[in-house]
Automatic annotation (TrEMBL):
<dbReference type="InterPro" id="IPR036291">
    <property type="entry name" value="NAD(P)-bd_dom_sf"/>
</dbReference>
<dbReference type="InterPro" id="IPR005097">
    <property type="entry name" value="Sacchrp_dh_NADP-bd"/>
</dbReference>
<feature type="domain" description="Saccharopine dehydrogenase NADP binding">
    <location>
        <begin position="5"/>
        <end position="122"/>
    </location>
</feature>
<dbReference type="Pfam" id="PF03435">
    <property type="entry name" value="Sacchrp_dh_NADP"/>
</dbReference>
<protein>
    <submittedName>
        <fullName>Saccharopine dehydrogenase</fullName>
    </submittedName>
</protein>
Amino acid sequence: MPTLLCYGSYGFVGDLIAREAIDRDVDLLLAGRDGDQLAEQVDELGCPGRRFDLEDSETVADALEDVDCVLNCAGPFSNTAEPLVEGCLESGTDYVDITGEIPVIESIYDRDEEAKDADVTLLPAAGFSTVPLDCLAAHLADRLPEATDLALGVDSFRPPSIGTVRTVIEGADTGGAIRRDGRLERVPTAWRTREIDFGRGTRPAVTMPMGDVSTAHYTTGIPNVEVYALMPEPARTALKLHRYLAPVLGLTPVQWTLKQLAGLVREGPAEWSRERGSAYIWGEARTGDDDERVVSRLRTPDAYVVTVNAAVETAERVLDGEADSAFQTPAGAFGADFVLELEGVEGFFDESTPDETSPINPLLR
Ligand SMILES: NC(=O)c1ccc[n+]([C@@H]2O[C@H](COP(=O)([O-])OP(=O)(O)OC[C@H]3O[C@@H](n4cnc5c(N)ncnc54)[C@H](OP(=O)(O)O)[C@@H]3O)[C@@H](O)[C@H]2O)c1
């Protein structure tokens, strides 16, 4: 049976993913750099473990020699994706991760040719960021093949896990990003505000540098992409303030202090909260002259629930050989309807008129 190695398996999301993979009878190897935490998890889950750090690419490649696919859950991925991808290319192992970090996705995209030569699939961003928005982007591109502009948005405001907080801090000095004419463009944080009806009435959302800015373009070929997140007023103001703080946030002592403070955040959303959570996803494709415009929506379970299901489902499909050997996006590999196969996801709810506040909005149930 093909083997999946889950790296960072004893982290908050890694542990949820490992449990889901075990429930699905995946042949799983738990892995990470800390022997104590790993040994504790190995005992509890009754699954084999493999301890190795990511300091040296030869060690990583050796550790992956008998592994068919890595599922990297160790974030911030700016520190872990590069050595694991390198090890995968050397050992001929497929690679999946749950990053939402644009620079990480871009750096993996740059290794497309190497992946083809090594007969390896590199599929980053198989979590909440980016599976639902990536699939919605593909669906919108199918509806309007001439589209030149894509706007995507997510309404899923919830407290993050400590790992997500650390990841946000790690990228705190880089500001926002959009894609224009096919190229990534840096913009200030919360650069543009837009009133969007995610399915529960119109509310203000701001541009955010989510991984979908990268993936939606690679999936659809649409040259202009903006990604929005619903943001209540205090958070919008804080994000705008961030524009002035960004240069300071990149300084090492400030980063260190923020990470210590992040350690005070509780581990992650509890089970009851994940079970009750939900997210509303919106997308719009337009032609440049604004002659044509289509809107579609999705409703999903909680972002952490989607991340766990999407990551394990993706890894299983990669193990089954369903994704070509190359850089891949989730919808590029498995099609727009991939997201509809995840438990609890509803959609696509298509709208073709400009009236986004239609009272018969299917999400208002
Ligand atoms: N795509 C999505 O929608 C989505 C959803 C949820 C979370 N995430 C991302 O997933 C990541 C993990 O989140 P989490 O809540 O599980 O965080 P967490 O509880 O802090 O776990 C992080 C894991 O990564 C390991 N790790 C971190 N840096 C490492 C390094 N340099 N070398 C080796 N191992 C390293 C940690 O091991 P040690 O204890 O040994 O440091 C730990 O096992 C975050 O980046 C978060 O943003 C993405």
